[in-house]
Each structure stands twice: as C-alpha cells, then as structure tokens.
From TrEMBL:
Protein name stated in the entry: Fe2OG dioxygenase domain-containing protein
Limits of the Fe2OG dioxygenase domain: 39-139
Alphabetized PANTHER family for the sequence: OXOGLUTARATE/IRON-DEPENDENT DIOXYGENASE
GO MF annotation list: metal ion binding
Superkingdom of origin: Eukaryota
UniProt keyword Metal-binding, yes or no: yes
Record flagged with keyword Iron: yes
Length: 188
C-alpha cells in the first residue's frame, strides 16, 4: 500500500513539474504531458553496499537519464549523488523533506536544449550502505519527440532531429552508460 501510494503521489508531482516546465518555456500548461502521452513509470530502488575501496569504483557511473523526468528520494543519512557542473563533480547532499529532480534527455530534446539533462553519478562509501529510490517518468513508446514549435522560431534551428521514444531508448541501452551523451547521436 505504501509503495503504491508513493507511486501515485510521485506521478502527480511529476505532472505538476511538467506543467510548470511547459509554462516556463512559454508553452501551454499541458504541452509536455500531451506530447509524452500515457507516461510509463519505472521505479528503481538502488542499493549500494559498503565498499572497502570506494575510490576504485562507482555505485553508478556518470550518465544522464534517458527518460523525461526523474524524481529521486535520497537516503538522509548517507550522501552519494554527484552532478557535473562546469566540468566538476559536485555532491548533492540529501536534504530533509526534499526530492532531487533530474531533467532527462527527452525534456532536453523537447525544449530544444533549453533545459539540460544533467550528468550525474553515485559514489560508494567505505563503511555505510546507501539506498535511493528513483522514479522515472517516461514518454509512451510511440511518442514523437520533436522540439516545441515556438522554440524553433526566430532563427533558432532545431538542435535534434525528430525521433520516437522507442527509437531513443533502444539506442540508449545499446551503448555503455558513461559514453558520450546519447542525444549527440540525434543532433541535426
Ligand atoms: C538513477 C540514479 C542516483 C542515486 O537511478 O538513475 O541516477 O543517487 N540514481 O542513486
Ligand atoms: Ni540517473
């Protein structure tokens, strides 16, 4: 019951964020939700055991999330998430009563690069285990991902070609997670 309530609430939060992101781009409130259609929702409960030599490995190597929007619940006791900013990895320490929201590759493409899908990774820890709960909102398979029209006017070229989410997703998993940004393969 707890997990299913959590999934419902997190989905509502994701929809609200998608509405606000649409509006921030000067689009109709429902624009992003309409493009993404009946969204899939995946949950990963990540478990990172303690590692005696944490500098030799990662819990998760650097990657961007291939979906639209990710809502991450962090372990309050143990930090581990890092994001890449200006070429440097910065720790995102857990905050009470806060989620981490990751923009995924699909929102970068839909916004014609205005929103950035963040590079992030998880490091491990010598003596403490860590858990995190990631909820991924994903476009439906046949969703056509293409830059919103108003964002490609006034001399702004479309940065990426059109693709379906199914095409993107299979390309994403045919590479290594920490290779070049998968979106690069869809550049115009
Ligand atoms: C993920 C992810 C980070 C974390 O599951 O995609 O980036 O802190 N998790 O566990
Ligand atoms: Ni991730």
């Amino acid at each position: 019951d707890i997990v299913s309530n959590y999934c419902v609430e997190v989905r509502e939060l994701g929809y609200r964020l998608q509405e606000l992101i649409s509006q921030s781009l000067g689009l109709e409130k429902d624009y992003i939700k309409n493009v993404l259609g009946e969204q899939g929702q995946h949950m990963a409960v990540n478990y990172y055991p303690p590692c005696p030599e944490p500098e030799l490995t990662y819990g998760l190597p650097g990657h961007t999330d291939p979906n639209a929007l990710t809502i991450l619940l962090q372990d309050l006791q143990v930090a581990g998430l890092q994001v890449l900013k200006d070429g440097k990895w910065l720790a995102v320490n857990p905050q009470p009563d806060a989620f981490v929201i990751n923009i995924g590759d699909q929102l970068q493409a839909l916004s014609n690069g205005r929103y950035k899908s963040v590079w992030h990774r998880a490091v491990v820890n010598a003596d403490k285990e860590r858990m995190s709960v990631a909820s991924f909102l994903c476009p439906f398979d046949r969703a056509l991902i293409s830059p919103a029209k108003p964002l490609t006017e006034d001399g702004c070229e479309a940065v990426y070609r059109d693709f379906t989410y199914a095409e993107y997703y299979s390309k994403f998993w045919s590479r290594n997670l920490d290779q070049e940004h998968c979106l690069e393969l869809f550049k115009n």
